């Protein structure tokens, strides 16, 4: 049997705080298959961002197992692209240059950087805005640049923390369409954090609902909706029933064990 793309086993993470230790992740175990799209949902503070940043290698954990393709994750790497809610673009560089900058760090020549960056700017449909600076771009466009940048060094895994959380509803739907299209064409493993259950159902193969205090996995939902998906599916009984089930799980997990 092939290795899972991501394997998390009995992972624990504690933070120190003035009020005492916070058990941010308690015995979290999760596997992602190659090309699988998995969303993490749950009440604020259940550890979604912590888990994502640990997988990104941006912070460590106290104990447990964390492997990608069977190898331990010990820090950030080009095999994992990260997109956050805030756009994190360099304001003094154009859209094209922001992507080139990431590629220079990956060791490509100047000509390769230019070509690969242009290809990914086109992929996110920003051809006409390649030479615009972030201040000249809308929120959705800035997030397209961030996605182009994350995809440009061809990661095997895309880690996204509320990437569309700051966008208006229409732009958000457009970005969901774009992401689905890119994911269907290029196939990569995605771990996606969102507060929006509709978004999670629309995008995912699987949804992981987490509980708070301590942060842990409380339920898993397989999304059986056919692909390719379209926004019309959002009003079908099947979609709405799953959305309700996930919402109920989030509600049930929003009061911590430590608070009863
Ligand atoms: N740097 C830190 N120091 C201390 N405690 C932290 C730190 N970062 C997160 N926490 C705590 O760890 C728990 C999990 O936080 P985390 O941000 O991962 O949750 P989340 O589910 O992503 O929340 P949200 O949906 O609000 O972003 C919370 O109790 C939070 O207060």
TrEMBL record:
PROSITE patterns: ABC_TRANSPORTER_1, ABC_TRANSPORTER_2. InterPro entries: AAA+_ATPase (IPR003593), ABC_transporter-like_ATP-bd (IPR003439), ABC_transporter-like_CS (IPR017871), ABC_transporter_ATP-bind (IPR050166), P-loop_NTPase (IPR027417). SMART domains: AAA. Pfam families: ABC_tran. Keywords: ATP-binding, Nucleotide-binding, Plasmid, Transport. CDD domains: ABC_NrtD_SsuB_transporters. GO terms for molecular function: ATP binding; ATP hydrolysis activity. It comes from the Bacteria. Residues 6-237 form the ABC transporter domain. Belongs to the ABC transporter superfamily. This is ABC transporter ATP-binding protein. It comes from Rhizobium grahamii.
């Amino acid at each position: 049997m092939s290795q899972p793309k991501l394997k998390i086993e009995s992972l624990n993470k504690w933070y120190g705080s003035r009020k005492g230790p916070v058990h941010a992740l308690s015995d979290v175990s999760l596997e992602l298959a190659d090309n699988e799209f998995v969303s993490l949902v749950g009440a604020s503070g259940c550890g979604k961002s912590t888990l994502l940043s640990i997988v990104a290698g941006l912070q460590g954990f106290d104990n447990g197992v964390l492997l990608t393709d069977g190898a331990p994750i010990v820090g950030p790497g080009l095999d994992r692209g990260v997109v956050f809610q805030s756009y994190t673009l360099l304001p003094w560089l154009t859209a094209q240059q922001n992507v080139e900058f990431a590629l220079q760090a990956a060791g490509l020549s100047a000509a390769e950087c230019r070509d690969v960056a242009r290809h990914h700017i086109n992929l996110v449909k920003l051809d006409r805005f390649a030479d615009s600076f972030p201040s000249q771009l809308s929120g959705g466009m800035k997030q397209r640049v961030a996605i182009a940048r994350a995809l440009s060094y061809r990661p095997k895994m895309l880690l996204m923390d509320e990437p569309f959380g700051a966008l208006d509803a229409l732009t958000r739907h457009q970005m969901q369409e774009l992401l689905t299209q890119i994911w269907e064409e290029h196939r990569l493993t995605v771990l996606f954090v969102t507060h929006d259950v509709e978004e999670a159902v629309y995008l995912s193969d699987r949804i992981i609902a987490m509980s708070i205090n301590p942060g842990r996995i409380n339920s898993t939902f397989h999304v059986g909706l056919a692909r390719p998906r379209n926004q019309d599916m959002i009003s079908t009984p099947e979609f709405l029933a799953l959305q309700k089930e996930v919402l109920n799980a989030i509600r049930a997990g929003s009061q911590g064990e430590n608070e009863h």
